[in-house]
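The data are set out underneath:

___
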Amino acid sequence: MDQEILDRAVAVTTGEGTLAGRMGIKILSASGSEVVATMPVAGNTQPFGLLHGGASCVLAETIGSLGAALHAGLGRVVVGIEISATHHRGARDGDVTAVATLAHGGRTVATYDIVITDSAGHRVCTSRLTCLIRDQVPGREANGRDLLRD
């Protein structure tokens, strides 16, 4: 995939006004087979000061969906249809790192296994995301932006 289009896809995913942007998610690398990102624990905690399980799911769905979009290619859209998460241990500070790896990449469905680790490398969460892939409806761009034109 062209680097300019990849950069635009990352910007649409984590840009202003997106949940991923508000949560501080940063994409480190991205392709259809693997996406790597970080997210700060600070600001994404539950009342006991631990990383919120929902924040882990947002991180997992964000990078899994980006991977699925890159797998699907231009002119296709993806929507998450199932996510599961097992929370193994808490994280109190620093950043967590997530790696989404393509488990199945078909024409209409893509599934990613996502592992989230803390700053010490301990596994915090294991997630699996399945996305449905469809042709894009003309005039309905991602977050109001056309990846080819903006």
